[in-house]
Amino acid sequence: MMHKLFVYILLIVSSQILAPIHVMANTARPPNTLNAVLKDDTYIKVGETTFSILFWDLYKSKLQTTSGKYPIECETDKLIYNINYLADISGKDLIERTVEQWQHLGINPETYQVYLPVLENIWPDIEDGDTLSLHVINNKSMFYFNNDFIGEIVQPEFSQLFLDIWLSKNTSEPELRLELLGVNTVSYTHLTLPTTPYV
User: What was the pLDDT predicted at 74?
Assistant: First the structure.
């Protein structure tokens, strides 16, 4: 009788310990490729643009959501932001440009500095033709490089912090923002050389 009771108690305790591990295993890793993400849902283009300085095209970008609208409903909608680079840029320079844009937006350094070491580990050096994509689901940020998953940031505030570089009303490139939101359809070209959202 004591043996059966011991086994019963052991089974109850084991189930309580193993249950959360099982749940974590099912949700631990996002899809390995962006193509796999695109198979799960239909993404509708909100807008796209080509960003240039003088006569040099630097990147093309496209905003897509499952609703076809932006901003999204975080609990039900999903988002993909693609940046197709048309020039080389190192991972270090990419982060420096990102910080410059957060400074332009007046973001408190304490808000973004925690993410910089993470981005250093995620973002690679970029070559002409490479694509960096952000997939946002439930406020989690997953990055894909040339279709392959390269890392994620689970803090819910990061996705908006990153997207605000282009989509905030206070962005350094308001015309580019309108194109991404589908308001303007003509590519935006700089005639000067300011600090640019080159991320």
Answer: 86
